[in-house]
Amino acid sequence: MGGSYLENFRENLIFWIWELKNNLKIIEMKTFLLHTFIFFTFLITAEITAQNTPISSELVLLDVETGKEKIILHEQRHFEAPNWSRDGKHLIINTKGKLEKISVKGKHLGIIDTGFADNCNNDHGLSFDGKWLIISHNDPRVSSSGGNSRIFILAANGGIPRLITSNYPSYWHGISPDNQWVTYCAMRDGQWDVYKAHVITGEEIRLTDADGLDDGPEYSYDGEWIYFNSHRTGRMHIYRMRPDGSEQTQLTFDDYDNWFPHPGPDNKSVAYIAYIEDQKGAHPFGKDVKLRLLDVETGESRDLTPIFYGGQGTLNVHSWSPDGKQIAFVRYNSKAE
């Protein structure tokens, strides 16, 4: 599930007010209203500050074996969620509703034409064969309490998008190797779960029904598994299941909040982002995070990076290089430079 860091701020605002009400054990309504007013004032001030604070973004290529980083783009603006092209020559990032191509050397290659879909969020990516681009577009024609994101598909080089998911909100995360199914996080009847939909018919199938948020579903390269993250235990962890939803198995058990698993080309390695502190089921921007790599065969995870400033937008979608030697991610700095 994606969205800009400010969009998620607004969503989390409501969540934390509810937590305030429950946890402060306020008896008198006047006291509760006073605390609510103070809390809203604080958070609104923080959001205004965030909107006026320069954000620098770094597009980083990381060697997963050596840990060596190469910063190919550093700009005083906010961009998110790199995808690596299947030919290995460029990356795709999103910013202000648009998708941009950036060469592996950091050269701007232009905006991808997505037609009417001009409010894309950070859930986008390419098919395994590189022919198709799948986007999550915040569609102004619809609305719901969970958002208005719907999933569309178009030619990888741009064109007129075709709707896949008529239901909303739907946030894309994966596509099957045969291009028949897309996987995504969706809210239906107030519950966030993992779904898949047929690319041609739009048939929607629910894959998870556990309590708590299920998100980030992505197919393995061999098509045998769908990896996802779930808050069903009260902490966010990495899971996998078969494409029909069976054999749902927890893979991480540490004290981090683990999000957005991205299986590598070797079908053994899974890269993901770990929040250092418990985020209570949210995945906000501007937190201490690090990237980790899970060895599916041993069940062991290791750090790929030190702790850095990131979160929402850092590693939302698949960003492995075609040869499986590198991943791309975004690191942020909120201070003017």
TrEMBL record:
Pfam families, alphabetized: PD40 (PF07676)
InterPro entries, sorted: 6-blade_b-propeller_TolB-like (IPR011042), WD40 (IPR011659)
Signal peptide start-end: none
Domain of life, source organism: Bacteria
Cited SUPFAM superfamilies: DPP6 N-terminal domain-like (SSF82171)
PANTHER family hit by this protein: PROTEIN TOLB, PROTEIN TOLB HOMOLOG
Similarity annotation: Belongs to the TolB family.
Protein name per UniProt: Periplasmic component of the Tol biopolymer transport system
